[in-house]
TrEMBL record:
This is Probable branched-chain-amino-acid aminotransferase. Pathway: Amino-acid biosynthesis; L-valine biosynthesis; L-valine from pyruvate: step 4/4; Amino-acid biosynthesis; L-isoleucine biosynthesis; L-isoleucine from 2-oxobutanoate: step 4/4; Amino-acid biosynthesis; L-leucine biosynthesis; L-leucine from 3-methyl-2-oxobutanoate: step 4/4. One of its GO terms (biological process) is branched-chain amino acid biosynthetic process. It comes from the Bacteria. PANTHER family: AMINO-ACID AMINOTRANSFERASE, AMINODEOXYCHORISMATE LYASE.
Length: 281
């Protein structure tokens, strides 16, 4: 695989980052995941805009190549012959050559920019979408700025592991009795034809797929309500689903052992998945 590191396209084995890099020592880095379908980037502009916002919120310098990011994404797709898959991008505050809680002087220390591709054949026709996901709920104990897409992913990883251990696929995070989001996706329920998903705040990541799906839903005259909901409400809903750049729209059929609706992917989630794939490619 050919990857990108600070201005260079390199074989993955030759791309080296300092052991003092702040993303490694302090999780002082932000990232984006953009999907690729039919060799095309999906929702690139949204991901770029969110990256810029994450950098701003953390007072992190834009990498020098910021304005070339579209070109770099396209070049990596081409070099790695990606038809279906993902591009992972990470910006860290760089390495000051030592460990220090204080941010290094941005005049001296430049950000580290890394991009690599992941080929995922069958991403659009994912058989999991036919079956749906089983989720468990766990307490959301992440930090309070979940709107910033940082690389602090230990708790979401632990959530996925807890789900796996319980024979499930993913976990929904719950704070003050209400679902915030999934470990790596935004969460939705459907009741009486209304699509319900938590409103945007620093409690959740402002999903790029979420924005597109809600726009398509409204364009298709579906009713959308942006508000928090509980696990009990979700278990009693007609349907549930999640969205993310890596799963698009993915039905959820079971929550904490209780079937949602008929325990099968519902018509709204199926329709939204179709619309999203049709409109985005
Ligand atoms: N995760 N919420 C969280 C906590 C996420 O990590 C993600 C994305 C989303 C969905 O955002 P978007 O639609 O912009 O992908 C919501 C990515 C895919 C990941 O970590 O792999």
């Amino acid at each position: 695989r050919t990857v990108y590191l600070n201005g260079e396209y390199l074989p993955e084995t030759e791309a080296k980052v300092s052991i003092f890099d702040r993303s490694f020592l302090m999780a002082d880095g932000v990232y984006e995941v953009t999907s690729v379908l039919e060799g095309k980037l999906i929702d690139f502009d949204g991901h770029l805009a969110r990256l810029e916002r994450s950098l701003n919120e953390l007072d992190m310098e834009k990498p020098e190549a910021f304005d070339d990011l579209l070109e770099i994404h396209r070049k990596l797709v081409e070099l790695n012959d990606i038809d279906e898959g993902m591009i992972y991008l990470q910006v860290s505050r760089g390495s000051a050559g030592d460990r220090d809680f204080v941010f290094p002087d941005p005049e001296v220390v430049k950000p580290t920019l890394v991009l690599f591709t992941q080929s995922k054949p069958g991403l659009a026709n994912n058989p999991v979408a036919q079956k749906g996901l089983k989720v468990i709920s766990i307490e959301d104990i992440r930090w309070g700025r979940r709107d910033i897409k940082t690389v602090q992913l230990l708790y979401p990883s632990m959530g996925k592991m807890a789900a796996k251990k319980a024979g499930c696929d993913d976990a929904w995070l719950v704070e003050d009795g209400h679902v915030t989001e999934g470990t790596s996706n935004n969460a939705y329920i459907v009741k009486g034809g209304t699509i319900i998903t938590r409103d945007l705040s620093s409690d959740i990541l402002h999903g790029i797929t979420r924005a597109a799906v809600l726009r398509f839903a409204r364009e298709a005259q579906m009713t959308v309500e942006e508000r928090p909901f509980t696990i009990e409400e979700a278990q009693g809903a007609d349907e549930a689903f999640v969205t993310s750049a890596s799963t698009f729209v993915m039905p959820v059929v079971e929550i904490d052992g209780a079937k949602v609706g008929a325990g099968e992917p519902g018509p709204v989630a199926k329709r939204l998945r179709e619309i999203y794939l049709e409109e985005s490619i």
